[in-house]
Amino acid sequence: MKSRCKPKPNENGGYDSAKPTLRERNGQSAKRGLNRSISNAAWGELVNKIEAVAAKSGIPVIKINPKHTSQRCPKCHHTSKENRKKEKFLCTNCGHYNDADVNGAVNIKIRGLKKLGIDPTRRAP
């Protein structure tokens, strides 16, 4: 989300320099406000609020390490950087296809269930 947009050549094959417009910047300045708000977010306060609301409802909060969750296939468990191309996930081992964020969420759910001692392959009745 916070990575810099790649420059695209103009119609002459070169790159515009001096004062690039929004179009020439590939949306870089359009992302600037979003990037700043993400950087300035009080993540600790958000976690505390979630834990407080969950405690009132009797719901456990489990912290999961998100490392490699959007690069790991939930079907065959193959992990590779090549599995993720921008927003798309395509497993190079079994061919499983999904949105990378959805794939990451599925893997986080699986890790959470395992941490609770629940078999993630078991279907609810």
UniProtKB/TrEMBL annotation:
Residues 1-38 are annotated as: Disordered. Keywords: DNA-binding. GO terms for molecular function: DNA binding. It comes from the Bacteria. Residues 43-108 form the Cas12f1-like TNB domain. The keyword DNA-binding applies. This is Transposase. It comes from Moorena producens 3L.
